[in-house]
Automatic annotation (TrEMBL):
<dbReference type="GO" id="GO:0006567">
    <property type="term" value="P:L-threonine catabolic process"/>
</dbReference>
<dbReference type="GO" id="GO:0030170">
    <property type="term" value="F:pyridoxal phosphate binding"/>
</dbReference>
<dbReference type="GO" id="GO:0004794">
    <property type="term" value="F:threonine deaminase activity"/>
</dbReference>
<keyword id="KW-0456">Lyase</keyword>
<dbReference type="Pfam" id="PF00291">
    <property type="entry name" value="PALP"/>
</dbReference>
<comment type="similarity">
    <text>Belongs to the serine/threonine dehydratase family.</text>
</comment>
<dbReference type="InterPro" id="IPR014333">
    <property type="entry name" value="Ectoine_EutB"/>
</dbReference>
<feature type="domain" description="Tryptophan synthase beta chain-like PALP">
    <location>
        <begin position="19"/>
        <end position="307"/>
    </location>
</feature>
<dbReference type="InterPro" id="IPR000634">
    <property type="entry name" value="Ser/Thr_deHydtase_PyrdxlP-BS"/>
</dbReference>
<keyword id="KW-0663">Pyridoxal phosphate</keyword>
<dbReference type="InterPro" id="IPR001926">
    <property type="entry name" value="TrpB-like_PALP"/>
</dbReference>
<dbReference type="InterPro" id="IPR050147">
    <property type="entry name" value="Ser/Thr_Dehydratase"/>
</dbReference>
<dbReference type="InterPro" id="IPR036052">
    <property type="entry name" value="TrpB-like_PALP_sf"/>
</dbReference>
<dbReference type="GO" id="GO:0006565">
    <property type="term" value="P:L-serine catabolic process"/>
</dbReference>
<dbReference type="GO" id="GO:0003941">
    <property type="term" value="F:L-serine ammonia-lyase activity"/>
</dbReference>
<protein>
    <submittedName>
        <fullName>Threonine dehydratase</fullName>
        <ecNumber>4.3.1.19</ecNumber>
    </submittedName>
</protein>
<dbReference type="GO" id="GO:0009097">
    <property type="term" value="P:isoleucine biosynthetic process"/>
</dbReference>
């Protein structure tokens, strides 16, 4: 039996990662506050090192390794923000990192991860084949695999984001949390419910292929078809043998909301024009949900804006008014 993750784990994660992550700003949004009729803030993790909150969990997991594990290095599978974060956290701790990915991953993403200091291994044509290489590195080279969300140290690290929000704004009524594998939601909701069970935690995902919400509806981890979406960082499954996030998301979330592609584009656009923030699709789903009126009576609201890593040409088209549909391209 695995040990449950506790509030104390988040407090020690905060100590562990202090100085390795930015305490990001909590920025009032005048435009959203006016639209909603109650105060709204953005918790600006798009300003986090590496461009997303994923550094919190990755830093905690890497720094908590034993010296023997650090000496052998870490390995992960990721095409996006987690790969960058793990590479950065490892380099910062003087630990070797290898990120495995399939040859379908676009070159700019490969370069982004390499730029953070990871060795990138391009293996085969699917995530599964990349995973085989990870398994080999663990078995033959003794490296430690650190998964992107379903891991106690990752979840505790993401929880530090919730801690920062509630310390700055103890009266918060509603937290809007982008949801994919659920590491962020699990950590933040654990903190919120430990401090004040009355804080409402809303998980937000895209209509196009949300694995966690589908899994919760089915009552077990369920694979969904991956489709092109503006919220690309929210794609992917929750793992057949999910250990933590499935149960924690089921137990700790008050509501789930789904947003469509036009709403996500609207969120990205509003973040830029009203709040001067470049936010990627996954990071803008909370803004999208508020603007579409999908969260009833939210009260004092904090929107977790989780990342900034969006292709600049795509951002320009959306900010310019286009409702880009990636499925039609
Ligand atoms: C990974 C990610 C999420 C979702 O986090 P999970 O822990 O997988 O639910 C949200 N936003 C951004 C920008 C991300 O990179």
């Amino acid at each position: 039996m695995k040990d449950p993750i506790t509030f104390a784990d988040v407090l020690s994660a905060r100590k562990t990662i202090a100085g390795h992550v930015i305490h990001t700003p909590l920025r009032p949004s005048t435009a959203l506050s006016e639209q909603v009729g109650s105060p709204v803030w953005l918790k600006c993790e798009q300003q986090q090192y590496t461009g997303s909150f994923k550094l919190r969990g990755a830093a905690n997991a890497v720094l908590r390794l034993s010296d023997a594990q650090k000496a052998k290095g870490v390995v992960g599978v990721s095409t996006g923000n987690y790969g960058r974060a793990l590479a950065y956290a490892a380099r910062n701790a003087g630990v070797r990192s290898v990120i495995c990915m399939s040859e379908l991953v676009p070159q700019n993403k490969v370069d982004g991860i390499r730029a953070q200091g990871a060795e990138v291994r391009i293996i085969g044509r699917s995530q599964d084949e990349a995973q085989h290489e990870v398994d080999r590195l663990v078995k033959e080279d003794g490296m430690t695999m650190l998964p992107p969300f379903d891991h106690a140290d990752i979840i505790a690290g993401q929880g530090t984001l919730g801690l920062e929000v509630i310390e700055a704004l103890p009266d918060v009524d509603t937290l809007l949390v982008p949801l994919s594998g659920g590491g962020l939601l699990a950590g933040v909701a654990l903190v919120a419910k430990s401090i004040n069970p009355g804080i409402r935690v809303v998980g937000i995902s895209m209509e196009r292929g949300c694995a966690m919400i589908t899994s919760l509806q089915e009552g077990k981890p369920t694979a969904v078809r991956e489709l092109p979406t503006l919220a690309d960082s929210l794609g992917g499954g929750i793992g057949e043998n999910n250990q933590y996030t499935f149960d924690m998301c089921a137990d700790l979330t008050d509501d789930f909301v789904l947003v469509n592609e036009a709403q996500i584009a609207d969120g990205i656009r509003a973040a830029y024009h009203d709040d001067q923030q470049v936010i990627e699709g996954a990071g803008a789903v909370g803004i999208a949900a508020l603007r579409a009126g999908l969260v009833d009576n939210p009260g004092q609201t904090v929107v977790l804006t989780t990342g900034c890593n969006i292709d600049m040409a795509l951002h320009k088209r959306i900010a310019g008014g286009e409702d880009v549909d990636l499925m039609a391209e």
